[in-house]
Inverse folding.
């Protein structure tokens, strides 16, 4: 398949370690994909879904102990602990290789090792990077074929001496005591063993595009971010692009595929989906920031997705989609909580047990049909709102960067940072309630700077400094905003309808980018004048909007204290710019 000496040697070394029975190269063809699908169905790894209702769709269940990213088993293996910083788990490269080798040793006996050459970004673009994943899981192969550009075209581009990221994965025995997700930035290498779940094993995604990607980005002068990218076509035909960072399961996929609400449709808006999870961004010759989505598919959260909240997602997942850990219905179709239609009278749940609606477990809690982090894997190409610029090598120009989290109380619906540096502070101090996308206590508020806490491959203090520098390198940096769709009332009900109605907030953001509207200066940034948010067709009173935009000084002063504690852990690595911004925020909060 290749005359690339280093690639061949690396594959040989991995095969010697893992001892597969055979090695199969993935060429990216439909014919090979069909063979693999059939094989996965024979072994029971996948179940073919009803070909009339869901053509080309397959069902997969992961092990019950393997349903989300395991951040506590994810390590950055740099020469020193300081390189990884206080927010990452760290192991020395020697220890990492030694520990994981023990688990990889012979782990592919009786199995096939698949070789997947892939490109992040359009093959051959200045943004793009090539990786090769070795895996013993057909499920991983079938997902990668959807998620990234794979196969022969990539190998051709790699040639005989091109650079590539080495991604080694084995399910081994799926024992969470013998599971490690290791990153070796100095060697451009990822080793993942003992898991079969999404972000732990689709190594192009969080491991390469973000953890190693953020390293490369700093070295080479660009940004690798956990961001969606969407284009908003305005009534006059102009398309403005925004990039937004929200933590896992906080609405990126949904915003990226937004459908304009009734009240705004008549204005003639149209949405173009560029990406839903990862943005690679560079400063172009015009001094502006340009972005590509390095992926080619979606690995999105199923529960909560339905034709009302997001018709574009529902249209995307009707064919050629892999469903993981949702409820399987008797007619080989799928269902999930808060999806379309009534719960089916019976089915098989994500654990593989018989399920009926209203079932309770031994503690009296409802038994869910789908795991809360159940996901669909679907090609971007199938999305009705997909961009026509997917394969454009130069990407799309970014007008605004939006940070956001799940905050029941503190953060208002939207505000604008005073400057790039203040915007970096806003991103660096983001906090959000934990979701089911990773193991840990759900609902607990944690700081998740730029939604990159689990994905920044180096010291986050240095990352903040780098972000500040990027702003100085641009002639016309994007304006920076913060949003919160999740503010609740005293009964815990969301105050803002969210989803399509979020366009009302984007509309204000774009108007601000063009200096068309006045903002109201507040201690935390510019807020909208309530009358500047177009509520046409929405049953929401001005009072509720005022509440959504309220800034509670006492609560923010408590936040300042918490931020100071959070910043303290970075020591000398924290740029002065951010401590200055914290002091300014405190001053604005304490003066009238
Ligand atoms: P990852 O793929 O984990 O990085 O997550 P994501 O940010 O793409 O999250 P996604 O869009 O899949 O949203 C996850 C959850 O947030 C789902 O349960 C959605 O129903 C819910 N959600 C998304 N947008 C909104 C919104 O505007 N308002 C409310 N209330 N919920 C939302
Ligand atoms: C996330 O958790 O942010 C995801 C899913 O997008 S995973 O691919 O598992 O990281
Ligand atoms: Mn994500």
């Amino acid at each position: 398949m290749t005359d690339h000496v280093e690639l061949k040697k690396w594959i040989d070394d991995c095969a010697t370690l893992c001892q597969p029975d055979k090695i199969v190269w993935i060429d990216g063809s439909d014919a090979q994909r069909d063979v693999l699908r059939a094989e996965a169905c024979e072994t029971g790894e996948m179940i073919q879904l009803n070909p009339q209702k869901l053509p080309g769709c397959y069902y997969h269940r992961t092990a019950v102990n393997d349903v989300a990213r395991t951040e506590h088993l994810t390590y950055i293996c740099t020469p020193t602990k300081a390189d990884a910083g206080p927010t990452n788990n760290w192991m020395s490269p020697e220890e990492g290789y030694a520990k994981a080798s023990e688990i990889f040793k012979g782990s592919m006996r009786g199995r096939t090792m698949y070789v997947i050459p892939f490109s992040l970004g359009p093959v051959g673009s200045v943004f793009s990077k090539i990786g090769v994943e070795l895996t013993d899981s057909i499920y991983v192969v079938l997902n990668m074929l959807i998620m990234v550009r794979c196969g022969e075209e990539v190998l051709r581009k790699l040639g005989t001496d091109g650079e590539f990221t080495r991604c080694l994965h084995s399910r081994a025995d799926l024992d969470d005591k013998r599971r490690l997700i290791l990153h070796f930035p100095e060697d451009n290498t990822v080793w993942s063993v003992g898991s079969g779940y999404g972000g732990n094993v689709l190594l192009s995604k969080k491991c390469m595009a973000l953890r190693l990607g953020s390293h490369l980005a700093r070295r080479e002068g660009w940004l690798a971010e956990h961001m969606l990218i969407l284009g908003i076509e305005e009534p006059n035909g102009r398309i403005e692009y925004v990039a937004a960072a929200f933590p896992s399961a906080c609405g990126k996929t949904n915003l990226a595929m937004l459908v304009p609400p009734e009240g705004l449709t008549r204005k003639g808006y149209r949405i173009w989906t560029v990406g839903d999870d990862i943005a690679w961004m560079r400063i172009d010759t015009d001094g502006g920031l340009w972005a590509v989505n390095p992926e080619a598919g979606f690995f999105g959260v199923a529960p909560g997705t339905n034709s009302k909240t997001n018709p574009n997602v529902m249209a995307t997942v009707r064919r050629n989609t892999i469903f993981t850990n949702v409820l399987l219905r008797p007619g080989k179709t799928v269902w999930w909580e808060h999806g379309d239609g009534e719960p089916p009278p019976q089915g098989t749940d994500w654990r593989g047990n018989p399920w009926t609606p209203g079932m309770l477990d031994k503690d009296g809690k409802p038994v869910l049909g789908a795991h809360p982090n159940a996901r669909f894997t679907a090609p971007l190409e199938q999305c009705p709102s997909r961009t026509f610029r997917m394969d454009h090598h130069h990407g799309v120009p970014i007008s605004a960067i939006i940070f956001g989290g799940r905050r029941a109380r503190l953060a208002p619906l939207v505000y604008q940072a005073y400057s790039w540096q203040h915007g970096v502070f806003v991103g660096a101090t983001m906090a959000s309630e934990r979701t089911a996308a990773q193991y840990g206590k759900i609902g607990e508020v944690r700081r998740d700077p730029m939604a990159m806490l689990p994905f920044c491959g180096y010291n986050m203090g240095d990352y903040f400094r780098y972000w500040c520098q990027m702003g100085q390198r641009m002639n016309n940096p994007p304006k920076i905003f913060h949003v919160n769709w999740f503010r609740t009332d005293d009964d815990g009900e969301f105050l803002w309808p969210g989803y399509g109605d979020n366009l009302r907030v984007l509309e204000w953001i774009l108007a601000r980018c063009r200096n068309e509207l006045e903002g109201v200066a507040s201690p935390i940034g510019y807020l909208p004048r309530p009358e500047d948010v177009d509520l046409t067709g929405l049953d929401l009173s001005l009072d509720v909007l005022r509440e959504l935009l309220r800034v509670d000084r006492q609560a923010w002063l408590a936040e300042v204290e918490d931020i100071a504690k959070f910043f303290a852990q970075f020591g000398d690595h924290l740029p002065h710019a951010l401590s200055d911004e914290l002091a300014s925020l405190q001053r604005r909060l304490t003066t009238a």
Observations:
- The chain has three domains: 5-45+70-220, 225-296+390-590, 298-380.
